[in-house]
């Protein structure tokens, strides 16, 4: 009997490993060359580092590589130094990151010798919006890898294999944390059964340096603990959280901390007890402090009656600057509204000077075409991270205001809302994997360019397919010229393309309701909160279009530091990419190139559609370079994207035309 069970388990494991071949992301297995690895210390993490090096070595055949752990003032805790035949770090994890970096450099041809690499942020974390029934909020790649509805507490070998592959992928790009459940958190996550499952996950993730964190519901003391209140100043509530935190750490000694969405979109929070965000966050921070845990408290707040949703987070949080404990980090979405295809950066970055602030980016493409559109989000994040806030003079970029370069934050962190699920390619769209990759790389180095990130990802993901295919066909084609260059160009253009056919010139939040896929600028049923309806944002009428956030309007411009406040407020200096974000303008307003605003809008929509069409044509030429299943999948998705781009263009132009009453320019395909 025992033998049969062992055989069955071996068979299942073999199947799982096989299934994972298609799961290999940018870690495609390589034909490695022999290498001798010398490491005098031992730990599970170092064992992984040694194995990875042996399995992936592409350097000099028969070389000897030494892994050395020692103090070096130039290295931060996760940092490493690469030298000829040596990887040096101050921790085991630093060695592991060094190994992945070295292997990547061998594949991409990037410089190696003498490289010192330290992470920009201490906490580089994925937020999984995974519900305990296995569904994922805004997830487009299947169900959760952590939770499921049936047999929710059984941990199978398959679960463990998947979590391990997940941890490995994260470690390979430097991600070192994961919040396992949705920000709209179920109190049940803190019950004994779920905490035991969290422990199992943590045990698998640990050797790869990925610490687990949980999202918690602020009303848990009531719904789970049976208390009458969740008031953060109530002594029984304080005690409940202290005990709960103690219980968590008894299971998971390296637990990272808690993420909280409170007093936001109907979630319970301190405000319903007349307390502030600081009261709520500090109460949890005090419970976590003895264990070195952190609280990530989200600033995603807005109310139905606000005159301008874009201003609310700043208004609520600025007065609290300096009132948070040093283990509280305020988690701020990149823009002031909600992960739109383009937003200016949130004015909170750099403005809160005595509080740790962390950017929250969205990897899952909630507003950017789900798992259908090819959109490389790196350029969008780069735009945000490199935006100058001017808060401490020129060069106070969002990156530098949050990574500890300017303010002495005790903790620095950056979060990405994950796009992964049980889908056989993890992310739904082959190119969506590049967004997971890009998030990790930017979290490690917030000065990287999207061009470099795309370059690395393409080389690691596609080179093997192509070379094999080309070998089979026995003809010489220059891979760099014929594959890398055009695909990289598509990736780098892809986000602007989506902006063009969805929400050009600073338009925002005009997508279809609830699903957030496709256009819906007209959607405004009676009884729905106005700030959930697109007309609140585009303000189109016969007078013109755009949200007036100038000093004469909602005055959101004044939340930005000079010279930005004036630059955005003034029509002559406001960047056209943000025109209708900050200004309400007549349809015949003259753009810099002499076109009317209406015509400019028409041309942007049309350009976006043409760009997608060009992507399709270019992809069609790339068949010899890509595995045929992937090739067809991308082809299919591009054709769906094209159809949806046409829909965006036609729907928006027809809808806005009823107000502009101006003709569509003759050289644009008319809406049908
Ligand atoms: C968006 C999204 C929600 C999510 C929320 C958040 O509004 O549509 O699904 O819960 O952001 O970030 O909390």
UniProtKB/TrEMBL annotation:
InterPro entries: A-glucoronidase_C_sf, GH, Glyco_hydro_67_C, Glyco_hydro_67_cat, Hex-like_dom2. One of its GO terms (molecular function) is alpha-glucuronidase activity. Keywords: Hydrolase, Signal. One of its GO terms (biological process) is xylan catabolic process. Residues 1-19 form the signal peptide. Residues 427-667 form the Glycosyl hydrolase family 67 C-terminal domain. GO terms for cellular component: extracellular region. Residues 108-426 form the Glycosyl hydrolase family 67 catalytic domain. This is Alpha-glucuronidase. It comes from Arachidicoccus soli.
């Amino acid at each position: 009997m025992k033998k049969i069970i062992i055989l069955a388990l071996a068979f299942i494991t073999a199947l799982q490993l096989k299934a994972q071949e298609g799961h290999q992301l940018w870690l495609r297995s390589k034909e490695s060359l022999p290498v001798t690895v010398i490491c005098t210390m031992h730990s599970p993490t170092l064992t992984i580092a040694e194995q990875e090096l042996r399995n992936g070595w592409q350097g000099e055949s028969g070389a000897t590589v030494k892994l050395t752990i020692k103090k070096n003032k130039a290295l931060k805790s996760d940092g490493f130094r690469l030298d000829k035949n040596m990887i040096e770090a101050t921790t085991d994890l630093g060695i592991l990151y060094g190994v992945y970096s070295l292997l990547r450099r061998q594949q991409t041809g990037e410089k190696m010798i003498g490289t010192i690499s330290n992470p920009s942020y201490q906490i580089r974390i994925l937020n999984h919006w995974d519900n305990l029934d296995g569904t994922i909020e805004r997830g487009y790649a299947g169900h959760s890898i952590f939770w499921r509805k049936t047999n929710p507490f059984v941990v199978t070998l398959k679960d463990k294999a998947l979590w391990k592959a997940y941890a490995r992928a994260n470690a390979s790009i430097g991600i070192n944390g994961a919040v396992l459940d949705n920000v709209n958190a179920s109190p049940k996550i803190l019950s004994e059964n779920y905490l035991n499952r969290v422990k199992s996950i943590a045990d698998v993730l640990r050797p790869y340096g990925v610490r687990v964190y949980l999202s918690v519901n602020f009303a848990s003391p009531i719904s789970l603990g049976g208390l009458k209140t969740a008031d953060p100043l109530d002594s029984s509530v304080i005690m409940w959280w202290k005990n709960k935190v103690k219980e968590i750490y008894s299971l998971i000694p390296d637990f990272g901390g808690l993420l909280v969405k409170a007093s936001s979109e109907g979630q319970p929070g301190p405000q319903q007890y007349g307390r502030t965000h600081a009261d709520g966050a500090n109460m949890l921070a005090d419970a976590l402090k003895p264990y070195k845990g952190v609280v990530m408290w989200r600033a995603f707040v807005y109310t139905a009656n606000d005159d301008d949703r874009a201003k609310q987070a700043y208004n609520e949080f600025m007065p609290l600057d300096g009132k948070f404990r040093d283990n509280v980090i305020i988690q701020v979405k990149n823009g002031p509204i909600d992960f739109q295809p383009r937003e200016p950066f949130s004015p909170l970055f750099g403005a809160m000077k005595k509080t740790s602030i962390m950017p929250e980016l969205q990897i899952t493409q909630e507003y950017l075409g789900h798992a259908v559109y090819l959109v490389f989000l790196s350029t969008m994040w780069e735009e945000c991270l490199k935006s100058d806030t001017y808060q401490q003079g020129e060069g106070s970029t969002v990156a530098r205001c949050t990574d500890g370069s300017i303010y002495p934050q005790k903790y620095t962190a950056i979060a990405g809302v994950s796009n992964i699920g049980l889908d056989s390619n993890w992310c739904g769209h082959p190119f969506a994997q590049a967004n997971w990759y890009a998030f990790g790389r930017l979290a490690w180095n917030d000065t990287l360019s999207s061009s470099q990130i795309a370059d690395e990802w393409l080389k690691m993901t596609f080179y093997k397919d192509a070379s094999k295919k080309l070998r089979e066909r026995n003809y010489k084609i220059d891979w760099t010229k014929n594959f890398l260059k055009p695909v990289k160009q598509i990736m780098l253009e892809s986000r602007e393309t989506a902006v063009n056919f969805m929400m050009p010139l600073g338009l925002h939040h005009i997508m279809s309701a609830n699903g957030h896929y496709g256009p819906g600028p007209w959607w405004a049923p009676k009884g729905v909160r106005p700030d959930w309806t697109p007309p609140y944002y585009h303000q189109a009428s016969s007078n013109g279009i755009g949200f007036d956030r100038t000093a004469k309007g909602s005055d959101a411009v004044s939340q930005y530091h000079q010279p930005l406040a004036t630059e955005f407020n003034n029509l002559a200096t406001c960047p056209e990419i943000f025109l209708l974000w900050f200004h309400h303008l007549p349809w015949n307003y003259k753009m810099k190139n002499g076109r009317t605003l209406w015509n400019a809008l028409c041309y942007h929509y049309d350009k976006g559609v043409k760009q997608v069409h060009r992507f399709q044509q270019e992809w069609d030429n790339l068949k010899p370079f890509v595995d045929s299943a992937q090739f067809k999948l991308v082809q299919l998705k591009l054709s769906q994207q094209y159809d949806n781009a046409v829909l965006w263009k036609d729907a928006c132009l027809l809808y806005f035309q009823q107000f502009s009453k101006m003709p569509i320019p003759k050289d644009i395909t008319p809406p049908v």
